[in-house]
Amino acid sequence: MALLEDFQLKELQETAKEYQQALRGIKTRRNDWQKNIKKLIKRTLTEISEKIELSWSVGDYTHKKNLESIYLSFENIQSGITKLSEEGEGELIKYGGYLCYSQASNGKIHVWMEYPMIEKIKDIEEKKVVAVMSPMEISSEIILSQVESFLKEMVRWERDYREIIGFKINAS
Predict the structure, then answer these.
(1) Tens digit of pLDDT at every position of the chain (172 positions)
(2) Roughly what angle, to the nearest 10 degrees, separates helices 140-160 and 38-51?
(3) Rounded CA gap, 30 and 37, in Å?
(4) 130 within domain boundaries
């Protein structure tokens, strides 16, 4: 004699079906990324970076399959701020901001940006999530719109954002 009747297991069976469906969704999203979307993102970002002449470039992080990233990044440059010390002078580097498309472990694509950072002035990187999307939601038009938003954020940062002078400066 069974301990549980079929009607008692119905909810558990439904949850098990949802779990199987979630696993199929992950597999589908990963396949979409590998077969189409990764190439679309890289091609679109490359075309934008070639047609809009700024000191930016496209790169990727592909060291872990199904946990990859493609990004549009501004170059690192001298910040114009010079550290003065007994050992001498040294110009601080401004690390360029970037827009990144990262595949999460569930196959969804996290679109996020990181703001520029000047070494030894700000200890933590400032990030902003733009979107979390299924790979099939991504199109050239969406990417173009996200790059436009990213560039507007970079303009805002360059015009408006600054640390308070004399505070949060790392002594090293």
Answers:
(1) 566 677 678 888 999 999 999 999 999 999 999 999 999 999 999 999 999 999 999 999 988 888 899 999 999 878 777 777 777 778 888 888 999 999 999 999 999 999 988 877 765 667 899 999 999 999 999 999 999 999 999 999 888 866 555 545 455 5
(2) 50
(3) 10
(4) yes
Residue 6 lies in a domain: no
User: In the chain, how many domains are there?
Assistant: 1
> Does residue 87 belong to any structural domain of this protein?
yes
Q: Which domain holds residue 17?
A: 11-160
Q: Count of H helices and E strands in the chain?
A: 3, 8
Beta bridge partners of 56: 74
- What beta strand segments (E) does the chain contain? 56-61, 69-74, 77-85, 88-95, 98-103, 109-114, 117-118, 127-133
Under 8 Å between Cβ of 95 and 119 = yes
30 in any annotated domain: yes
| pTM: predicted TM-score of the whole model, two decimal places | 0.82
